[in-house]
Design brief:
138 residues; 6-stranded mixed beta sheet; 54% strand; mainly beta
Length: 138
Amino acid sequence: MTPSINIILNCTHFPGIAFHDKQQVFVGIQRKQEVVEPVPGDTGQATFSVPVQIKEGKDGQPDFFGPNVHGKPGDRFIYLVWFENKGEKERFRRAKIKLNHLTWDQVKSDVEADLTMTNKRGEPISATVPEDLIRWRL
């Protein structure tokens, strides 16, 4: 049986429901090509519990997989997707939560992180989330 855990993202400091020309901003987890568990961009705080499976990688380190995990071996991540909700989800940004730094000792059970959802410019976080916006509880 393949071990599985939850990556729990405790999200705070959301940027707001409007961004540039977008008026109904939401964020959610990317599962395969779908965005799931959406929350409004003006939420005070939200928790995403993202199930992942783990196997041993070629380098002996944990390798993550499952419908919520993206990337190639040695560079796995979870996507948070920002979108405008206009009946359809019009995506405009994604943020990468990198997983490759997690060790076997750290993934024996669920892993938590505190995540600031707004960057230094007051915008929704995007690209690879910098270390100053995420604090892992390992």
